[in-house]
Specification:
about 270 residues
Length: about 270
Amino acid sequence: MRSVLTVSSCVVALACLLSACTAPGTGLTFSSTTKADRSESDQPSLTDARNKAKAHVELGTAYMEGNLGAALDESRVAVAYDKTYAPGHLLMGQVYALLEQYPQAVSAFEEAVNLAPGDPEVNNAYGWFLCNRNRQKEGAARLEQAARNPYYRTPGRAWTNLGLCNLQIRDDVAAEIAFLRADQADPDNLQAKYHIAAISYRNGNLLRAREFANELNRQPERQTAETVWLGLRIEHRLGNRDGEQKYARQLARNFPASNENQAYQQGKFE
């Protein structure tokens, strides 16, 4: 849970690439299942090539967290069996992105989009990739398209990615709207709650910031140094010394070696 709320851009990017989310992820948010896949799976029989392509995508997806070379090989085999199977190209794009082979990733993602233009998983994955390639306007458009798709079972993923994309260009207003939509779609989305609280704190909306920070920190097992530190700073700015001290004790007890605890000890709140 603690990796979900990490604000480091590289960790967030990787989490969203690998999340069946984040996360956060915790994000994020790529899935190998697309609309084309779902429509085919409803048919009484599939072609042998499509069956084999699907099997290799599933295997390649399993490899992604530990063996990117094997995952890439599986995506190539899947596409060789059925070049019209969008999840094969989507998987290939994901792996190339993680390998930082960006031109190849773009080519694979574009092919997935061509084959399944309205699929929310494809648009979410490609949109997040574009945001992390400094193409936030294009990426945000795809993420919003994914999030608004009425057939998307996890729109909170795309709303969260859209919020993170807007944070990259320092658009707090658009980011907050997206995170609020993510929270509405998935009340357990801690990453969205964290950023709503952080944006509200930055912009002086301290009561809203407190509301979401309290939700974040209500369950001790969900706390991180970042969430406790945010709650502490909110109470400090509100002038609530009892609340501040409560968070300070949690920070010292549970995260004594954290940068946040060191900052508090030095009286550095910003």
